[in-house]
From TrEMBL, chains A, B:
Family matches, as SUPFAM superfamilies: PLP-dependent transferases
Keywords: Aminotransferase, Pyridoxal phosphate, Transferase
EC number(s) stated in the UniProt entry for this protein: 2.6.1.-
Keyword Secreted on entry: no
Chain ranges of the Aminotransferase class I/classII large domain: 22-345
UniProt cross-references to PANTHER family, sorted A to Z: HISTIDINOL-PHOSPHATE AMINOTRANSFERASE-RELATED (PTHR42885), THREONINE-PHOSPHATE DECARBOXYLASE (PTHR42885:SF1)
GO molecular function, one term: transaminase activity
Broad EC category: transferase
Pfam families tied to this protein: Aminotran_1_2 (PF00155)
CDD domains noted in UniProt: AAT_like (cd00609)
Cofactors named for this entry: pyridoxal 5'-phosphate
Keyword Transferase assigned: yes
Protein's recorded name: Aminotransferase
Amino acid sequence: MSNGPLRIEQYETVRYDLNCNPLGVPDSVTRAIMQNISAVGRYPDTYYEPLRNAIASYACCAPEHLVLGSGSSDLLRLFVALLAPKKALLPIPSATDYEHVLSVYGCETDFYELDINQDYHLDMDDFIAHLSDTYDIVILGNPNNPTSQLISKADIEKLAAACKELDIALLLDEMYIEFTENYERNTAISLVNTYDNLIILRSVSKFFSVPGLRLAYAIMNNETNMTIINMTATPNSISCLTAAACTAMLEDTAYIHESHSRIFTERNLIYSAMNTNKNLRLFKPSANFVLMQILKEDVTAKSLLAHCNLKGIVLRNCENFHGLDSHFVRFSIMNPMQNDLMVNTILELLR
Amino acid sequence: MSNGPLRIEQYETVRYDLNCNPLGVPDSVTRAIMQNISAVGRYPDTYYEPLRNAIASYACCAPEHLVLGSGSSDLLRLFVALLAPKKALLPIPSATDYEHVLSVYGCETDFYELDINQDYHLDMDDFIAHLSDTYDIVILGNPNNPTSQLISKADIEKLAAACKELDIALLLDEMYIEFTENYERNTAISLVNTYDNLIILRSVSKFFSVPGLRLAYAIMNNETNMTIINMTATPNSISCLTAAACTAMLEDTAYIHESHSRIFTERNLIYSAMNTNKNLRLFKPSANFVLMQILKEDVTAKSLLAHCNLKGIVLRNCENFHGLDSHFVRFSIMNPMQNDLMVNTILELLR
């Protein structure tokens, strides 16, 4: 034997913790960037008309109901700063950014604990019963992160109406909605025509796998808020390349269809492969990621992550989500061979 | 003769109204974008370390004194929102955006009229004599837009000290400073080490001719403000392509040198060619643009613009600048043949 380094198997690092589409950056994005490089020499038009029209057509909303932002984190900050809520009601577990941004802007938060025995699904009637006019804002992820649970459009409408009655703003984060089956039926976008207290956040980072472009958009139908935003928000903060790339990508129906087909198939396969294992509990996913509880006492999220890291598999430890503990892990759905390796590697520790 | 359309001379449209570098988009920008397209699939690091280091090195400041933003308009809004001034003192004429943004955030503005008989140069001792502790903020462009007048670093230091004494924030907009001769001696960046009330705004849009990328930066040395900004500002609002392009471009010394050489030469030629004309008055420029007053009664900015438009020459009508009237025009310095055409076309009406 040689005295060289030991031969170890090399694995590519795969980020199951970022929840991005496994198909990766659409070719339409690359093409649009190459074709529009010269636009960096010109000021973008402040209305971003082609981008705005592409979003309106993609999301089935009126162009004038759109607010553009540099990522969903940017829009979350914009709306919390704009609405200046004093008290919020948040279901937990949910995305850590909601609570963080609310607290930065001095908003007190009450938590509504989702029930693990209902697979963390939100019981809308019970949630509504907890509302009162002391609240100024409710923030919901739909599907929710990290639980991957979907709330029906009918339930969202019930909530929007109840919030409207109590003068509560409803911020609905649909960052992952396009990963759900028949998402056109799940999205609450059409409800903005009826409820002016409803604000829907959308991001392109996850579904189109372009987090480096920094684009998100919100849909709302509230003249007062829109007037303030038009006055105060920076008129042309989006780079011309981001605008051109996103305009092209939203019209890339081939990518959209292939994404759905890939993710729906893989989601079912992963769920079937893992769900019967008695050492773990899967919460049936609606989005492109899965929340899993480890039921084996001596395996923690931390030890499972360390084990998976050896094969380049990066999972999300969920212990910092309010309401979860050191036995929760989240992973997203990647490509077939990657998913096989991930499932097998997880099961090595939990068999 | 044929019955076809009349043969008319065709002119390329040249934007003398945007104040961008006539060399156009640096090749280093195009290259960096092509080489970094795959980065759109990844989240930018929230600190933007390579970009931050490139700016710090370019602008001779500490990386931790930098605030990044999506254009100077974005940073102006950020600082006005952060400082929440009640009363401002603005020299006029100056950039229209200052007064607009201050008023959007409910700040009352007093105007200090620059004296046309001093070529709109700011008399610093007199300006300081107008300060009082009723003011919360002073905003100055250096060089000032649209006057193209430069304030010496010694005068800026006097002002920063006087403002500090009165607890007034000094927002110094150096968007055009790199177009001045020996700009390293003119910039006030090193003064942030002494004056924590000084905030310097810089943009890359004008000097590097990349307004489509949307990047600006501010330099300040104020822990309280920096802490609030780090808490509230969106952590990763800049696209990865903008970050990569700007990092490369700030190190493109060939472009920087060629820009200086081109602009200094052309500025002198234009000034010499027009300055002796008795029907116009040029205010000796320090930046890459020139303010001109039309002294011929029957020619207005509007009629001169219409005349120039016929040859594709787009000038800036300055009548909407507070303190100017319908006889003021601003134009920037473009490339040699373009400038010859512009000068000749203007002189056609003013001879």
